[in-house]
Amino acid sequence: MANYGPGANFERDVKKYYEAKGYTVIRSAGSLGAIDLIVFDGYDTILIQCKKERRNGYYAKDIEKLEKVDCRDYWNKEFWVKKTRVGYKVTSWTDFGIKKGEKFTREISFKEFNGVVNGN
After folding, report:
1. 3-state secondary structure of 35
2. What range defines the domain where residue 14 resides?
3. Rounded to whole angstroms, how far apart are CA atoms 22 and 26?
């Protein structure tokens, strides 16, 4: 039997992060699909996939699955990886406009993440 607890906790943590930033978040619990969270605020919409760090660091199939999700213009996609003892690696991209498909990555430390969630 699979252990979904740590992954579900990670999704709930990212949900809290965006809620603390003023977004509304819908969690697609247990979906096993390409989208774990849908984040929106009336203007921005972000489709998010969350994964815990893997020993081999291989996420290409997971990212490809998220890339294939058809979405409206001006929606963004994010692929979150929780890195043990480090923080989070977030890869973001859009499917529209001049930067279509161009990915950028940012790192969020646990301290920074917790500061947002706790309102610090």
Report:
1. coil
2. 5-117
3. 13
The first and second tokens of residue 117, run together, are 């969630």
User: How many domains does the chain divide into?
Assistant: 1
87: left (phi over 0), alpha (psi -120 to 50) or beta: left
Q: Which DSSP letter does residue 21 get?
A: T
Q: Which residue has the tokens 């081999």?
A: 56
* Average pLDDT value over all residues in the chain: 85
Nearest to 97, CA basis, from 70, 64, 74, 63: 74
Which residue matches tokens 């979904």? 4
pLDDT in tens, 5-17: 767 899 999 999 9
CATH code assigned at 49: 3.40.1350
The one-letter amino acid code at 110 reads: F
pTM (2 decimals)? Answer: 0.85
Residue pair 18/90 in contact (Cβ under 8 Å)? The answer is no
